[in-house]
Each structure stands twice: as structure tokens, then as C-alpha cells.
User: Which sequence fits this backbone?
């Protein structure tokens, strides 16, 4: 029988501490939901969380919950429940998994955190369409379900250069959120507190960038699959000291790896860039598949999307507006391609994996000729994997494996 | 090595058929065998090996190295190593046509377009998405629906005088379109040609093609009219190797030879 390719990926020690702070975060939300002693806002993952924290809300992120449904492989059983209510299998599978789980009365939080039996109940739902239109529809469903207010920011789309035309309009929408949020929270808006929170978010973002950019080292001390796990605090705890403390710890470990020449993937032969969403239900399988071929998928647009280099505590509204509009997902292909090109060079990448996620056109960038254009320009070959972020019905593991193995063979031939 | 007559084995365990090729050290194809993959890939590969060795006049003791490929590549008990079918098809094609080509492989479960340069190195490849439209499985499904033996389809398609147009991506929807055409009284030969044309369309939309094109795979081996239709579609001659169904197995055997020499 042909030899099985072994897999080897070095575990990160700081993961234990991340588990602790994430547990604290979820239990605090759960306590508030039960006791109603603190107000809870639901927020999109790249939404104005800083405003909400500054106004005293605890913040729940349904996209994080959607990813947990995916990673726990519960999503595929939940999605059909939402499908049957008229939410198509073709729309965001975070939305359908999350709504389906709510309708079935289950949550992956219960398995991970004993004593939590439901998602925290919201007092307000706050979205930003910078991610996609689906978040608005998603939150609108819950607004009706819980009978709570929904407010949001409508971001421009397909922007080549972010200019003065775009930023003030978003800043204005953010400021317009204040009066309704004051009413719901019962707290008067405090500009100093917002500046403090934006300052913390900026520090978190800078550290997260440093963490991700350690992958530029050869060999890389980090994989994309690690990144998708360790991005948790950057998503749900940015604007807090805990996130900063955590990324300082993680960064120190990764710097130590670099100093000692420790590779995240033993015998790293190929360095790959991941473009698109992770396949949450196959994180471990994909990590094993690539590491078994001694290929490290070490960087991604996705994990980089929680780097907000424009946050400025001295000018919170305008800087948040700029940061949340500068996002990759908001931009036109010209800007996206320029960004990816820079990343390919920075991370010394041998090949690109595009994930064509069936239910997420916004985070899928291989449908308008980008792989062909970038390959022509950079000479770096690419592979498209068909799949989905959450809906495992859209996945063929065999096809993925053959495609990835063939791609690595192709890279070997070029060496 | 002494008096031993070395044999290099390539075995391609596809979703539909298992193909095996036996090569000697001079890169000559000595023997081969093809049979249904069935439900026990390992046993089928063993049976193919026996038959292939017999045809080649070799014994198991002559085997120097074996490379397996295809969906069942990891089920082959006697394989020393595996390679993907994409790499093996590229190598097998380059053996017959040592030049820069685009390879169209139509298999039972998937289609591939592989581009290689004039040194035989892969430039890119595309496989069909999850859907079976345009693959051998599509034609199998349609032959059952039309109640025509698979092997009669090529001859029927050639008799067509007024091909029906089938538009759907989806195998199930295509089945509905076929029913609709039966209801309208269309000739079966015209429907079958429409099905063939549908296969060509599904393949052509996968990727662009370079100047020289090669077609391989079991579907091509058994339905040569598809090659003619593809030639009409792209407006130029298409190359077909001597054993189109064996291309992957041949490539695997060549890998076996190459690996054992290093």
C-alpha cells in the first residue's frame, strides 16, 4: 500500500490562555443575558463595536457564532431549518446556520461552555453592510423575533480608492447611531470613553497585524489555520485590555519560534496564500492535508481583515469610518489585486488557494477573472477550491484533496 | 538486476474503470488491462495487475516500482507511491505528444483541462466543479433514461440530422429536457447528439485552450464522435493518443520508471 503522508503542525501554547479569555467573555454575556443587569448589543464582526463598548454594552457577534456552528460541524444540520422558512440554501450559510440553530434551540456554546444553553438575548442589533447585505437581513430576522430595535450603517461598495467622499458619510451614520443607543443603553455618550476604546482597538489591531506578519519569516511560525482560531479576540474582544494582553502573549511565543527557527509546518517546502473564507467544518482536515504535503498556508486576506490601521483615538468617528471602509471586502478588484500582490511579495508566496464559497459571494474573489489576472501579472500559480464556509453539502472532500495534491505536484515541478 | 526483466507499473483506479499499464525500462508499453472498478478497488487493482503482467510477459517478481493514481489510488495494495491523476494524465499525454498542449480528459466522474508546456511541465489545471454534468456519469445516467446501451450512443449520435439543444448545467434538469424532447417526438439520435454536444459545452466552459489540444479518457475512447464534435467546436484538429483510456495509467507507469531511476 502506498505510504500515507504524515501530517505535522506545531500546536500553539498560548491557545490555553485564549480559551480562558474567550470563556470569560461568553460567560459574562450569558450572565448579563440571564440577569439583565447589563445591556447587550449584537454587532456585525466588522461593525462599530467600539461605539457599543464605549456606551456600556456587552457585545455578541453572530458571525462568530456562525463560525462556531461551522467549526463544530453543527451548521449543516441547522441550515435546512432556515431553508424551510424561506431562507435559500444559496444565501449566507452563517445566516442560515445561525437562524436554524436558534429555531432548533441549540448552540455550540453549550458544548464549549457548560451552563450556557442559549445565545445572549439582545437589547439592540447593530449592523454594518461593509461585510455584505446578508447581515442586515440576518439581524432584521432577529429584530422581529426579539422585538428589539435594529440600527445600522450602510457602507459604500466596490470602492477603488477610499476618499473624502466616502468617509464623512460613514462617520455621519456612526454619529447618528448615538441618540438611539443612548436611549437603549440608558447611558449618556462619553467621547473620552470612545477615544479610550478606539485606542485599545488600535493596539489590538496593531498586535494582531504583528502576529500575522510573523508568517513572513522562513520558515513561518504560524499557519492560516492557526490564524482563524486565534483571530477570536480580535473579533469579539477588540477594544478591551484582554485582547491586547492575549496578543502580546501570542506574539512573544511566535517571536520565540522565529528566534529558534521553529516552523509551524515541519519541513516547510511551499508557502501558500489563502484567499476567501475558511471552510470552518474542515479546518483540521485542511490543516492536515496541507501540512502532510509540507505546504504551509501561512497568510490570508481573511485573517488580515481585522487589521484596522486607520483607527485614531484622537479622531474616533472619522478614523473608524475610514478603517471600516478601507476593508478589503468593500473594495473594487483593482484595489483588492494590488493588496494581494503586496501580500504575495511580503509573505514570499509560492501559490494561491482561492476558496469559492458557494454561499458567500462577498468573500469569494475568483469569479471575476482575478486568479487569471494575478497569475499573469505575478507568475504565481493558483488553485480554486469549491466549497463553503459552513454548508458541508457544498463540499467534495475527494475533489479538494485531489486538487490540492495536484497543485502541490505542479509547484514541485516548478522548483 | 541480473537477468530480471524490469517492469514498471502504473495503475489508475477511476470511479468507473481501473486501468493498468506495464512498461519496460526502455519506456515501451508492454501490457495493459482495463476493468470495472466495482466496489472493491484493491481486488480490482490486483486483478488488473495479474492480467497486465500476463499480457506483458512479466511476473510479479519483475516489478521494480508501482505508482497508483485516480480516485482509488490509496486503495492499491501493491503501489509504492501515489500521484494525482492530473499529473499522470499530463505525463501520459506528453509521452505521446512531446509538445505544449491543452489536455481535455473526460472521465467517469470528472473532467479535467490540463495545460502543459513544451517541456511537459504543468502550467495549470482545472477540474469540473462538484456537478457531474459533462462527465461520463452524465452519459451513463442519460443512457439509462433513454434505455439505450452506453456503447450504442456513439453510433446513434452520428446518425443525427437535427440535433436537439439541451441547455441545462444540471444532470437532473438535463434529464427533464430529454423527457420534454421525447414528448415532442424528437428522434433519439438527435437527442443523443444533443447530449454529446452538452458534454462538449460543459468542458469548453471550464477553461481556455492553447493551440494544440489532446483528448483523453474512457468517454473519449468509447465515443470517438465526441472528438469530431469538439474539433468542429474549436475549429481545429484534436490529437488523440493510441490508448486514450490508459493515459493516466501510462503516466503513472512513467512516474514509476522515473522515480526508480533517481
Assistant:
Amino acid at each position: 500500500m502506498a505510504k500515507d503522508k504524515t501530517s505535522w503542525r506545531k500546536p500553539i501554547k498560548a491557545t490555553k490562555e485564549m480559551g480562558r479569555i474567550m470563556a470569560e467573555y461568553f460567560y459574562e454575556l450569558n450572565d448579563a443575558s440571564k440577569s439583565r443587569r447589563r445591556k447587550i448589543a449584537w454587532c456585525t464582526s466588522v461593525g462599530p463595536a467600539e461605539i457599543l463598548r464605549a456606551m456600556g454594552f456587552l457585545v455578541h457577534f453572530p458571525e462568530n457564532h456562525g463560525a462556531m456552528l461551522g467549526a463544530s460541524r453543527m451548521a449543516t444540520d441547522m441550515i435546512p431549518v432556515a431553508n424551510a422558512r424561506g431562507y435559500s440554501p444559496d444565501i449566507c450559510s452563517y445566516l442560515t446556520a445561525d437562524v436554524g440553530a436558534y429555531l432548533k434551540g441549540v448552540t455550540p456554546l453549550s458544548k464549549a461552555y457548560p451552563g450556557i444553553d442559549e445565545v445572549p438575548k439582545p437589547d439592540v442589533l447593530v449592523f454594518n453592510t461593509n461585510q455584505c447585505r446578508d447581515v442586515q437581513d440576518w439581524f432584521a430576522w432577529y429584530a422581529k423575533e426579539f422585538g428589539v430595535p435594529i440600527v445600522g450603517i450602510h457602507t459604500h461598495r466596490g470602492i477603488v480608492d477610499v476618499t473624502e467622499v466616502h468617509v464623512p458619510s460613514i462617520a455621519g451614520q456612526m454619529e447618528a447611531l448615538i441618540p438611539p443607543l443612548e436611549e437603549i443603553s440608558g447611558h449618556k455618550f462619553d467621547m473620552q470613553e470612545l477615544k479610550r476604546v478606539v485606542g485599545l482597538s488600535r493596539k489590538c489591531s496593531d498586535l494582531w497585524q504583528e502576529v500575522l506578519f510573523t508568517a513572513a519569516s522562513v520558515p513561518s511560525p504560524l499557519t492560516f489555520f492557526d490564524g482563524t482560531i486565534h483571530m477570536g479576540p480580535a473579533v469579539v474582544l477588540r477594544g478591551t485590555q484582554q485582547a491586547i494582553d492575549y496578543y502580546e502573549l501570542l506574539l512573544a511565543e511566535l517571536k520565540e519560534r522565529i528566534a529558534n527557527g521553529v516552523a509551524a509546518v515541519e519541513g516547510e517546502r511551499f508557502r501558500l496564500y489563502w484567499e476567501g473564507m475558511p471552510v470552518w467544518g474542515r479546518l483540521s482536515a485542511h490543516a492536515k492535508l496541507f501540512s502532510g504535503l509540507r505546504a504551509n498556508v501561512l497568510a490570508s486576506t481573511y485573517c488580515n481583515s481585522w487589521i484596522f490601521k486607520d483607527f485614531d483615538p484622537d479622531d474616533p468617528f472619522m478614523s473608524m469610518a475610514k478603517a471600516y471602509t478601507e476593508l478589503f471586502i468593500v473594495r473594487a478588484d483593482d484595489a483588492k489585486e494590488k493588496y494581494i500582490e503586496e501580500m504575495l511579495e511580503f509573505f514570499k508566496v509560492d501559490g494561491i488557494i482561492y476558496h469559492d464559497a458557494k454561499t458567500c459571494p462577498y468573500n469569494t474573489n475568483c469569479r471575476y477573472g482575478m486568479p487569471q489576472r494575478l497569475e499573469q501579472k505575478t507568475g504565481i500559480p493558483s488553485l480554486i477550491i469549491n466549497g463553503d464556509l459552513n454548508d458541508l453539502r457544498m463540499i467534495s472532500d475527494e475533489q479538494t484533496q485531489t486538487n490540492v495534491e495536484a497543485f502541490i505536484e505542479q509547484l514541485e515541478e516548478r522548483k | 538486476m541480473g537477468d530480471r526483466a524490469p517492469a514498471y507499473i502504473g495503475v489508475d483506479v477511476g470511479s468507473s474503470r481501473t486501468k493498468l499499464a506495464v512498461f519496460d525500462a526502455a519506456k515501451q508499453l508492454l501490457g495493459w488491462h482495463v476493468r470495472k472498478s466495482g466496489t472493491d478497488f484493491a481486488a480490482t487493482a490486483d486483478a488488473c495487475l495479474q492480467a497486465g503482467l500476463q499480457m506483458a510477459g512479466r511476473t510479479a517478481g519483475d516489478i521494480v516500482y508501482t505508482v497508483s493514481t485516480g480516485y482509488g489510488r490509496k486503495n492499491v495494495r501493491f503501489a509504492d507511491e501515489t500521484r494525482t491523476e492530473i499529473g499522470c494524465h499530463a505525463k501520459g499525454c506528453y509521452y505521446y505528444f512531446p509538445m505544449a498542449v491543452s489536455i481535455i480528459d473526460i472521465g467517469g466522474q470528472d473532467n479535467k483541462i490540463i495545460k502543459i508546456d513544451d517541456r511537459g511541465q504543468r502550467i495549470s489545471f482545472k477540474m469540473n466543479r462538484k456537478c457531474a454534468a459533462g462527465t461520463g456519469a452524465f452519459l451513463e445516467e442519460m443512457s439509462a433514461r433513454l434505455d439505450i446501451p452506453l456503447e450504442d450512443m456513439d453510433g446513434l449520435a452520428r446518425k443525427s440530422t437535427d440535433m436537439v439543444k439541451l441547455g441545462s448545467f444540471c444532470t437532473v434538469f438535463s434529464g427533464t429536457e430529454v423527457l420534454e424532447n421525447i414528448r415532442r417526438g424528437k428522434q433519439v439520435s438527435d437527442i443523443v447528439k444533443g447530449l454529446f454536444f452538452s458534454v462538449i459545452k460543459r468542458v469548453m466552459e471550464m477553461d481556455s485552450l492553447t493551440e494544440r489540444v489532446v483528448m483523453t479518457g474512457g468517454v473519449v475512447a468509447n465515443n470517438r464522435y465526441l472528438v469530431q464534435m469538439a474539433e468542429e467546436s474549436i475549429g481545429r484538429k484534436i490529437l488523440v493518443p493510441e490508448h486514450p483510456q490508459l493515459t493516466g495509467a501510462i503516466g503513472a507507469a512513467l512516474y514509476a520508471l522515473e522515480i526508480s531511476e533517481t
